[in-house]
Amino acid sequence: MLVTHQSRFRISAAQRELPSVTASVEAFCTANDIPSATSNLMNLALDEVLSNIVKYAYDASNNGPIDVELAYSDRRFTVTVEDAGRPFDPLKFKGPVNDGPLNSRSPGGLGILFVKRLVDSALYKRSGGRNRLTLVAKVPLPQSTKE
Amino acid sequence: MDIVETDVAGVLVLEPSGGIDSTNAKAFAAQIIDKVQARQCNAVIDFQKVKYISSAGFRSLLIIGKSMEGAQRKLVLCGMGPEVRRVFEIAMFDDLFVICSSREDAAAQAT
To answer: Which domains, ranges and CATH numbers included, belong to chain B?
Structure first.
């Protein structure tokens, strides 16, 4: 039987709440023997996604909720992020990524580029008035320590 | 954010640790710029203990880089693990900064 380990929590859409998510991801990965490389890339992707929701999803006066679910099954670490803010598919966003000299560089668009390139799959769905983004990172088999 | 400072042959080596993300990126830039201005020297940022760096951290690197360039000081990066290095490549920041493997090479480049 396939065993799925899950953890769910809700934060409000405020910057000060984000360190608790980073800590939860690290604790979940440690508890499930998910390597730090996977934990780190997921925390990077989550920083992009969550800081976007904090900035844009809700009106300034309203720190609405963000629901985060962590799941690990069949060597797939899946993180689902949901908010009830304005409809926004971050995967469709294209920023002005460029490769010019220092003075003309803009970091716009880098965040979503990281999300797309670092995780193994990213899926956006709008349903029931909620944005739902699902990120999956495949967890490599541990290197055998035996000869 | 904790940033360890070391002097290597007159070059200021700065070693941040943990994740550099939307929570601490502004403090990261402000601290590095303050430390360089206080010491008036070239600098190396050693990424050995950096777990990950998100786009907010890259924004800070641009601010630090422009500040150093404006003051005509050299900035060299070093100590990146493979995951951090990969993110620099995705961002195309690997040709924007001088990146060395070892701290010694980086300090020599920054002299």
So the answer is: 3-110 (3.30.750.24)
A90 reaches B (C-beta below 8 A): no
- Kindly list the structural domains of chain A, giving each domain's residue range(s) and its CATH number in brackets, ordered by start: 5-138 (3.30.565.10)
Per-residue pLDDT of chain B (111 residues; tens, 9 = 90+): 899 999 998 999 999 999 999 999 999 999 999 999 999 999 999 999 999 999 999 999 999 999 999 999 999 999 999 999 999 999 999 999 999 999 999 999 999
How far away is chain B from the Cα of A135, in angstroms, using its nearest Cα?
16
Q: How far apart are the first and last CA of chain A?
A: 30
Question: In angstroms, rounded to a whole number, what is the distance separating the alpha carbons of residues B52 and A114?
Answer: 11
Name the pTM for this structure.
0.93
Which of residues 38 through 57 in chain A touch B, CB cutoff 8 A?
40-41, 43-44, 47-48, 50-51, 54
Q: Which chain A residues touch B26 with a CB distance below 8 Å?
A: none
Contacts of B96 (CB under 8 A, 6+ apart): A101, A102, A105, B65
Considering only CB atoms, A102 lies closest to which of B22, B91, B96, namely B96
